[in-house]
Amino acid sequence: MTNVVEFNHVSKSFKDFSLKDVTFSIKKGYITGFIGSNGAGKSTTIKLLMNLLKKDSGDITIFGLDQNKYNQEIKSRIGFVYDENCFYDTLTIKELRKIIAPMYPKWNDDLFYKYVDQFRLPEKQQVKSFSKGMKMKLAIVFAISHDPEFIVMDEPTSGLDPVFRREILEILHEIMLDEQKTIFFSTHITTDLDRIADYITYIHKGQILFSKEREELLAEYGIVKGKNDLLDRDTEKEFVSIRKTGVGFEALTSNVKKTMNLFGDEVLIEKPSLEDIMYYTDKGNLSCTH
């Protein structure tokens, strides 16, 4: 399987935050969801990917090419969707097209106008009159109209209502039908990734905790429920984190098989959501009393 992107032992330090030894890959022809809480390092990683920040150490290759040596070629093959409007908002779609289209050798006007029409975007209105959802659709139109091989999306559904979010996900599904495109989708709305992601990369406090196929990940992790008297110093070490209440405990395990062998039918094990995995990993050990 070909990797479109490879991060190998990449580090980047700031005054109050560091990416530490980040290693993961993005596989061709799939949607990889990139998750992590606010401040975990998602935006920094994307800026390094797009060569908008200089790494301190490590290697980043895209399409098998060194990003510093082949920066212009690489970017001509990427579509980028940012979480905020990055267009001149006093211009119309037609005026923006005149500026943006010449930048891409493979710009496709037929594709551009197809999506403008499909998304019902008004060509003659200034961008500042668009809703947030319309601006996101516009960003996607410009990102995909030069037929990019790789699409990077930074929080594309953030702040959108459920109808717009579902529509954006349908657009991504349509884009992936030719099986040649690759999408890297950074978001904190994990339910969106439950719908469309093939792989999940999870960053936590500047480090990659895992980068795995989504179905494999959800088979390995589990939400465990049982009585508090099953817990002791040794058994608690088996969990990522535990939430105790007056009537029992709920915990996250990263090894369902081992947990089943340890507790047998004394506990209930449920399939987790991505949100469950993020919640328990971020919060650590919680306790409350009822």
From TrEMBL:
It comes from the Bacteria. Residues 5-230 form the ABC transporter domain. Keywords: ATP-binding, Nucleotide-binding, Transport. Coiled coil: none annotated. SMART domains: AAA. The keyword tRNA-binding does not apply. One of its GO terms (molecular function) is ATP hydrolysis activity. This is ABC transporter ATP-binding protein. It comes from Heyndrickxia oleronia.
